[in-house]
Amino acid sequence: MRTLILLRHGESVWNAADRFAGWADVPLSDVGREEAAGAGVLLAKAGLLPDVVHTSLLRRAISTADIALDAAERHWIPVRRTWRLNERHYGALQGRLREEVRTRFGDERFMAWRRSYDVAPPPAEQGAVVAGDRNARYRHLGVTIPATESLKDVLARLLPYWESAICADLHVGRTVLLVAHGNVLRALISHLEQIPSDAIRQITVPTGKPIRCELTDGLRLKFVAARDCQHRPLR
């Protein structure tokens, strides 16, 4: 059995304000920092001590990983960061209030942009601050920032890193903590559980709650320790 721990970052200030964040680099709220510390305490109590952490290049995930590891007394383990674990790019919706978008475009289109598998929001305009297309961290890496993404797009850019880096750690017996974002974790769960694309909208991942996944030697999902709706966090 291989152990993978999934952790969505704690509440961000834009989660609290009900804004689309995507690649916008917003910090944790006070509640989010408490959630991150609580996640680390839960990991320690459960004896789930990670050997390595993988996270995104966005501060809400980085901060969550740092705080959780400190609370679990695992602050010294390797941390690997990649843009491939960044949240889904919400295009022109980034920075906008969700209720404003729902009111303007209607429930059906709003839910398609938020929860469907292959429908992307309208693209961000080039040069938009929340698009992140002028961010030095991505220029340095030679990464072309998307103008918008569907969940299908997220899975496509996530899988090469999953297969080359995370699976490599799992294969040698490391307990892996993956600290990422709601849509990244939804995409990975759909891949591990082989969930049909029309059922993916039902997957929910709460902020700041570790989810323990046990995988077979072939890295197929054996079971999820607990479920919230579909996936419950550790208690």
Could you give a quick summary of the protein structure above?
Its EC number is 5.4.2.11. The chain is α/β, with parallel strands linked by helices and 235 residues long.
Largest sheet: 6 strands, mixed
Oligomer: single chain
The number of helical elements comes to 8
The order of strands across the largest sheet is 3-2-4-1-5-6
Helix/strand-derived class?
A: alpha/beta
Residue runs with pLDDT of under 50 for 5 or more positions? 226-232
**Order of SSEs, N→C?**
EHHEHEHHHHEHEE
Work out the radius of gyration: 17 Å
Task: Tell me the distance between the termini.
Answer: 21 Å
Total number of strands: 6
**Overall outline:** globular
Mean pLDDT: 90
The percentage helix is: 25-40%
Which SSEs are present, and which pair or pack?
Blueprint: E1 2-8, H1 13-17, H2 30-46, E2 52-55, H3 59-71, E3 79-81, H4 98-105, H5 107-115, H6 136-141, H7 151-171, E4 176-180, H8 182-193, E5 211-215, E6 221-224
Parallel strand pairs: 1-4, 2-3, 2-4
Antiparallel strand pairs: 1-5, 5-6
Helix pairs in contact: 2-3, 4-5, 7-8
Please, could you describe this protein's structure?
The chain has 235 residues and is α/β, with parallel strands linked by helices. The protein has 8 helices and 6 strands; from the N terminus they run βααβαβααααβαββ. A 6-stranded mixed β-sheet has the order 3-2-4-1-5-6. Helix 3 links the parallel strand 2 (52-55) and strand 3 (79-81). The protein is globular.
Give me some keywords for this one.
single chain; 235 residues; six-stranded mixed sheet; alpha/beta; EC 5.4.2.11; His_PPase_superfam
